[in-house]
């Protein structure tokens, strides 16, 4: 008799996570490999299954890979939501249309996204400088009425005539706060890379028959795709430098006017000009590094950078130290009044970001024209520019919200910017940007109303077909029918997400341009700028300004609250977790301060497990992924060499591979890419339901006529009460696919198809080999 061949089913959970006990259906589990962050588990009785293959004839050994601790944990991780603009900008990098890699616009697209991401770091540093340097050290500490009642600012007040009371020294001291912010982001980026993204891919023997030539491979199959240490290090150095230089520039601009009053050729004037030149040179070097930095995915990029790149942040810190000393130097008669010079920088950043987004749209248009199989691409290939614009908008809201609320707190009962206020308040542009928020929310509300109407219309049409899916002998129940039809209608809203994104992006661009124009033309906040207009216009402007200011602040609080709840409340995480998990699935290719990429740990984990298990035990393997787990599973299969990939079958359920990733990331999950994956592995089956708001069909037209999609599955399984289901069956939607009888049938079919004879048998490694695959 032939030796029994073992089969393994590797389970990968989805959004929200699951315990190994839940995944394996047994309270007694044992960790097979991994650590407390991510690990593979089996039932205790299956821990030594490889030693007893006879006990598992016709039935796979079940093993669960749990990765939930990569994206969840203590509530302090909610602070990562403050980094949402960076995460969204990073997403724009991956949303390019599916044009050939050699297309000239590919390089332009990459550079534009990286430059846009750099402006977000500058915006963050400028917002920190606005709070610390302008509102605190320059405006409030220099005004007796504002300092009154704030004992912690007393030593900075000119009334005390202390050493720190001069404007330059106040600014020098306050610059430590934005520097701490940049330092914290640098530390967090370095620490999270070590914890999440430093897992190396399994070794491959170069030049063997297992590997396809580089120019014929799918990008996700390249050996270095999930390992970009050098790229993140280079971008981290550049963005840290940019943040430090922003602080130095704020200090330099604040004292430049005073230095110009000094005698020509004085020490302060000459040294100030030299420092300005040094800042310009360092800024140019930073832009060049960002411009020239590109992902190298053909092989793991773990080389060290050149000395000039590694030294750049330290050089910028040295220049900042000299600028700080220069700023703190005694200037007789110097005093602070009005806003800090340089407030126009916020407008310049907003205009520059708009220009970059428009250029990105042009590059996307050229790429979309050359794209292959782009029929279902979100926004006709304009998803990247739209998302990049939203990243800038969210960054503006967060920075403006913090500045507006801080100014309100410093002013007490007065309104910043008004004639009776003790301090001028934040830059006028931030007030204009706050004023357009209510209009943007009106657009969102209109789209929400249209979505609700769409649900009602679709529910009415679907309700007529629901009873036909079940036993005609069951009594019709109108309420039950409407609940099922309503679930299907709400699940369909996922496909309408591009409309919402397009509407918000278009309105944001128009309103943002109007805010910049209003601030530059009037130089006043909307309430004061409309004082001579009709009472209706003036009242509307004042209301929009006040309401928008609170909405900006509420946005910051809402992000923190949602993040905290999502990490502590399992149901809340399922609601918003898909957006967060999509955002942190991709490597940090554009912004190094974005939240860490969990896939750079999870994908190598799964690839190592599949490669080593099939190598050691010459067995069959089905990798079974739910929801986001199906994306991780597919990405891991792509990383296998061709021989191992041909020994693996893929089972996905509730999968967003085509519905979300295929539409929004067509260059990496488009139809031709998914068809190639199916062609190179043993087989693939996908289960889906109409009631699932996340998962959907894969829509593959394969050459051999095999059907990847199995569905739509009936949900609920029973319409009414039956002998088998005395209570009404639950509408499962996105969860519990294993309870459907179709799941066991499809899994058994995949295991049987793998069969005892492997399609591309590899020779066993010679005695004494290191365990690495041989040709």
Automatic annotation (TrEMBL):
The keyword Transmembrane helix applies. The chain crosses the membrane at residues 78-96, 108-128, 171-188, 237-255, 267-291, 311-330, 342-367, 379-403, 436-457, 499-521, 541-563. Residues 756-775 are annotated as: Disordered. The keyword Membrane applies. InterPro entries: AB_hydrolase_fold. Keywords: Membrane, Transmembrane, Transmembrane helix. This is Membrane protein. The lineage of its organism: Bacteria, Bacillati, Actinomycetota, Actinomycetes, Kitasatosporales.
